[in-house]
Write a structure and sequence with these properties.
Blueprint lengths: L2 E3 L2 E3 L9 H14 L3 H14 L6 H14 L8 H17 L11
């Protein structure tokens, strides 16, 4: 459990079971950054926490790719054409169904 004591944060000892690859990464990062392992872990957890709920770069790029793929497929229609179709749909709903099929416009 962590709590604030003045301007410094008191720490609690905790035990985690980690695989060897993760332990090596922590060791390597601590050595490269010249920081204690506990600080490396604290900073990693803090950065991970800040990204919760946000898209990764890979997810963002995939969504942009799909957007670029789908947008050109949206039919280009005049505002008047869309308004007429919506008006016909609203009228059909009020009267129990469409009386004619909507026509595709170019």
């Amino acid at each position: 459990m962590l709590f604030r004591s003045g301007s410094r944060m008191a720490a609690s000892k905790v035990t985690f079971t980690l695989d060897e690859a993760t332990v090596r990464r922590i060791d390597d990062a601590a050595e490269i950054l010249a920081k204690p392992k506990s600080q490396v872990v604290r900073e990693a957890v803090s950065q991970y926490y800040e990204r919760i709920g946000r898209m990764s770069e890979r997810e963002r790029l995939e969504k942009l790719r799909l957007f670029d793929l789908l947008v050109p497929r949206i039919p280009i229609r005049s505002t008047g054409s869309v308004d007429r179709e919506l008006k016909a749909i609203r009228q059909a709903r009020r009267s129990g169904g469409r009386r004619f099929l909507s026509r595709k416009t170019k």
